[in-house]
Write a structure and sequence with these properties.
Layout: H1 2-18, E1 30-36, E2 43-49, E3 54-59, E4 65-70, E5 76-80, E6 85-91, E7 96-101, E8 104-108, E9 114-118, E10 124-130, E11 135-140, E12 146-150, E13 156-160, E14 166-171, E15 176-181, E16 186-191, E17 196-202, E18 210-216, E19 221-226, E20 231-236, E21 242-247, E22 252-258, E23 263-268, E24 272-280, E25 283-291, E26 300-302, E27 307-312, E28 338-343
Antiparallel strand pairs: 1-28, 2-3, 3-4, 4-5, 6-7, 7-8, 8-9, 10-11, 11-12, 12-13, 14-15, 15-16, 16-17, 18-19, 19-20, 20-21, 22-23, 23-24, 24-25, 26-27, 27-28
Length: 344
Amino acid sequence: MTRALRLTLALTVVAAALTPSLTAQSGPYRILSIDKLGGDGGWDYVAADSSARQLYIARSGPTGTLHVYNLDTLAPIADVPTGNAHGAAVDDATHHGFATSNPVTMFDTRTLKVIKTITTGGHPDGYLDDPATHRVYILSHAEPNVVVLDAATGNILSTLNLGGEPEQSVLDNHGHLFIDIEDKDRIAVVDTATMKLTANYDISSVSGGCAGLAIDADHGILFAACRDKNNMVILRASDGHILTTLPIGVGCDGAVFNPATQETFSTQGDGTLTVIKESSPTDFAVEQTVTTRRGARTIALDSTTGHLLTATADFGPTPPPQPGQRYSRPPMIPGTFSLIVIGK
């Protein structure tokens, strides 16, 4: 998440100081553990491979490495030398992973050895694996905005420009790819067979700056977690009709839907996790606001356990902005990077 990686921590510190956080609500979810993983360098996504029980976290810095952990014990398994990356998509059938470094790093998920690098152009950032077609979608704020890879070979199948900056993407399992375009306040709809843009759902009337997108594929409902008004925009996937909006915290940077519980979760940099319950395809409510930790802004779902995973670190005082800067970021304290596990 290129813009998020640059600005989210600074913006959420400022926004949280000016805007009260949502009041924590009692409910079934709680922090199960906070595990210090340590190491230096920033991070963006966390990715859980529930089938293979592996956790992937890319760390930036002078060397840049994709760290792989046991999803159950969090014991380190290996490091994949990717250079700076934002995260990794995994295709379980081919046992291939793709780290969104520049160039993209293709690796074997069993041996964790690099297979090859793939020059996609742009600035690889977000990612999505389609297990039905064994395709991997690489997202970039710079053109080409979407690059489609064959998960078996790593070959580039097609590219697509969207006229804006894509953040998170989801599939409806009926041939449609949905992508929130952060800087244009819309949801792009792509036909996966032709890789053509077929629609844009404008949500500017209710919010914008959406950095998280989740889907209830069975009922055709999209959940767009947006920063501009700190809300979740809920809309029909079939036509973009906005059903409702609900409040979330400040500085969202990811969302996931759990079909087993009919709940959507979004994480915010102000240290909150919002739980939205879908009682029916027309009935939604904020079920709980879980207090996490400041900076825990991205999220992954372990679909086997139902646990939510997010990460953060400790930070020092925020220095004054340099000339020409509006904001500055607090420095990360080395060795404090931690994974937060949330569940019932």
